[in-house]
Automatic annotation (TrEMBL):
SUPFAM superfamilies: TNF-like. This is C1q domain-containing protein. InterPro entries: Tumour_necrosis_fac-like_dom. It comes from the Bacteria.
């Protein structure tokens, strides 16, 4: 069941505080203490062929307060259960396989079709891995979903970095209506 975003009533000096008014403040306070949020990461590496956009799969939720992620079905998606604006941040990258070079792009993809953010980086021969990230505030309706998209053009299939500290992850937090 979807939670309703809190409505904080406006009161004026001298207005009586009724039980109904007090309860509406309690609901708003409790909602913000546990606002919808999730932090997902990838513990198993994933192949990223060249010139192909791959949706990163997440098998390990650190937290998911609204139950929007299912690691068994559509594990690349976080499905919105509470409407509102969310701050979404993603990071992903690949370990270097073969000669360095080319470019890599990590993006935030909404409902499988709309890019809200995309970060393109050139691969450098001095590094054994490359990690990109991007962030956006996105308005969602119930049932919308968000994914991390990764693309690279090194000429070889690359492998994502799977780690709780520097690997692929997606985080989101409800910030308002």
């Amino acid at each position: 069941m979807a939670r309703l975003p809190p409505h904080v009533p406006q009161i004026s000096t001298g207005d009586p505080i009724t039980a109904a008014l007090w309860n509406s403040f309690i609901y708003a306070a409790n909602f913000h203490l546990r606002a919808p949020s999730a932090l997902l990461y990838q513990s198993v590496s994933q192949s990223v062929p060249p010139i192909t956009r791959v949706r990163i799969t997440y098998d390990s939720p650190v937290r998911d307060t609204d139950g929007g992620h299912d690691p068994a079905n559509n594990s690349s998606r976080y499905t919105i259960k509470t409407a509102g604006t969310y701050l979404v941040a993603v990071a992903s990258g690949t370990a270097l396989q073969g000669p360095a070079g080319g470019e890599q792009s990590v993006g935030i993809l909404v409902n499988g079709t709309t890019f809200w953010a995309d970060h393109l980086r050139a691969r450098d021969q001095a590094f054994s891995a490359i990690l990109g990230s991007c962030t956006a505030e996105i308005p969602f309706q119930i049932g919308d979903f968000v994914e991390t998209s990764l693309w690279q053009d090194s000429g070889l299939t690359q492998t994502t970095i799977a780690s709780t500290t520097v690997g692929s992850w997606m985080g989101l937090h409800w910030v308002g209506v």
